[in-house]
Amino acid sequence: MFTGIIEALGKIISIHEEGSNRRFIIESKISSELKIDQSISHDGVCLTVVNVSENQHEVIAVDETLKRSGLGKKKIDDLLNLERSLMMNGRIDGHIVQGHVDDVAVCKKIKSQDGSWLFEFRYDEKNSPLLVDKGSVCINGVSLTVMKPSKKKFSVAIIPYTFENTNFHLMKEDDEVNIEFDIIGKYVSRIMKQRK
């Protein structure tokens, strides 16, 4: 369980194919503090730490994870948003994030707003019931507030701190992002479908 508040950026040092799985070696300022078996969010994808060295940690993404998220397209030197799992005695500054990516969305527009940025994303309209104006969404592991959702697109505003301390500052139009919809919205949607 996560909150969508990013702690660090991790740089992919190497990628190894292991059957249908992929092992990522990542370097970050928090890697040395991690322990084997911990769950860490990597661009919104919950992965288990399998090895730790001085400034690096290793995780393995299985085939299903590679297909469902954007991790399958990541390359050496790409930066990932990292967050350690939620401590139950702490504040939830973002929203409840599971680290279970639902789909990918595509960045369609980036607009500077004199001190902040507006990002517009296109997504599969089958997921439109899961977004509400001023609700929560997780993009590449970052907890954000939904603006102007429609059947095929929605926007988020990015403040300078988030822009500079996540991989949003590297994002370009037509880039794919990992998206996780709010867990409460997913449960409500399922209940409503079952009542029909």
- The strand line-up of the biggest sheet is 1-2-5-4-3-6
Cα separation of the termini: 31 Å
Low-confidence stretches: none
If classified by CATH, what would the architecture of the largest domain be? Beta Barrel
Structural class call reads mainly beta
CATH fold annotation of the largest domain: Elongation Factor Tu (Ef-tu), domain 3
What is the count of structural domains?
2
As a whole number of angstroms, the C-alpha radius of gyration is: 16 Å
Main sheet, how many strands, which sense, barrel?
6 strands, antiparallel, barrel
How many helices does DSSP assign? 3
Helix content: 10-25%
Present the secondary structure layout:
Layout: E1 8-18, E2 21-27, E3 39-42, E4 45-52, E5 56-61, H1 63-68, E6 79-84, E7 103-112, E8 117-122, E9 136-139, E10 142-145, E11 153-158, H2 160-165, E12 176-181, H3 183-195
Antiparallel strand pairs: 1-2, 1-6, 2-5, 3-4, 3-6, 4-5, 7-8, 7-12, 8-11, 9-10, 9-12
